Each structure stands twice: as structure tokens, then as C-alpha cells.
Amino acid sequence: MSDALQQQGINAVLDAEACIRCRDVSVTFFKGRQSVSAIEGLTLDVKRGEFLALLGPSGCGKSTLLRLVSGLVAPSAGKIDVLGGSPVAARHRRDIGFVFQDAALLPWRTALENVALPLEVSQGDQRQRLQRCQEMLDFMGLGARQDAYPHELSGGMRQRVSIARALVSNPKILLMDEPFAALDEITRDRLNEELRRIWKQTGVTILFVTHGIYEAAYLGQRVLMLAANPGRVKEFVPVELPEDRTLRIRESREFVELAGRLRSSMESGS
Question: What's the predicted TM-score (pTM) here?
């Protein structure tokens, strides 16, 4: 364990079989001549098939961490390994899917045509690609709306299309950057349940960024709490709840205590 980890008192398990490894990773951006440290000394391992929720205040580097894993941002220092190689190589193999807060669907394309986007540069039989896209929309409960345009779909439906598009290439890692933040509470709750179903059925590794304490506690197997200025690991909080859970678990004493611990960690500062 590095000196930085010992100083921060982080309870991180460094797993030899992890699919994502970060070692003392730092990211520095420059605004003119002034440098800004977005992430500093970050070390973590994410296990294959894990659901890791990322929680912390604005400016703590949650979105930057996702961009590091996807190879969209390069570390200024340290090393990151994804699926045994570089993040860029993993992205080029389409081993990484990305879902943003905005569904980012092309308005002139139907739901089916939006899901098909990642496969259009692929070689292979067009009918098989079409069948795969239809299967993904069925999987997301939108098979009957495959010919609908984005403006004909609700916000929750558009995000389901976005998730189907991210999963259509059968990625090993799914990165989700506050995908449900703009939705109403009832729709968000439904999609939280839907996402856990997707995760359990596909076995995909998920990194899920959120500002919601209850969302992080409900979704994750662990919660990575990040501190800000600069962004860094504050602690890993284990989620000791049953793997098979419904929204009613939020009424349990264990869930209330977990949410309270996460809130205290966020409020305690660096």
C-alpha cells in the first residue's frame, strides 16, 4: 500500500483480478498559465462484475474518473490499467459503454436506429446487427417503441434507449455519469430497479456517478466517497445489504444507517 493510501486511511482492497486498476493517478488541467488539480493520488481497484457507486461533492473528480477509465482523459501522473491494457485500447475494442445525464439521442433517428449507432462501423451481417438492436430494446422493455423518435418518448424511455445503445456492443464495463439526475423521482426509482436487474443479468462492471445518497446506497455493492479540491479518495464504504433488493429496503434500519453514514462522510469535508 502506498504512503498516500496510508495517510488517507483508505480501506481499499487491491484485487489481483480487478478489471480496473488505478495507481497514484493524478490529473492536472491548465487554465491559461494556472494549473488546476482535478484528481490527486487516486488508487483503487474495481473487481470484474462489481457495481461501484461514486459519491461526493461537486468538483471532486467523479466525472473525470470516468473519463480516465474510458481513455478520454490521460493521467498527468500515475498509471491506470483497464482489462489488462490501456483505457484507449479497451474503448477501441468497445469493451466500454458510456451513459450520460443527457440521453444524447439523434432526433432524426428512431429508437432502433439510435441503438444501432455503435454497430454501424462493424463488419458482419446487417440482419444480425438489427436483431441484436431489437433484442436490446426488448431487454429494456421498449420493443414496441422501436420506431418511435426521441420526441415521442418520455425522459425515462429516452434513457432506456441510451442504456440499450451502450449495451448493444456487449461491453465489459459500463460507465454511467448521473444518468437519472434529470428525471422525476418516480421514474428515477423505477430505473434504479431496472439498472440492478440489468447488472445482475449481464454481469457487466458498472461505475455509477451520482449526487444522490439514497441512490448510491441502493445501487452499489460499494460506495467510493470522493473528497474535493483536489479530487481524491476519501473512503470506500461497503454496502452490507442483500444482493436481491427492492426499493422497500430503503425503509429498513440497515439502509437508514448506511445512508446516515454516507451523509456524515459527505458533510465532514476532507
Answer: 0.89
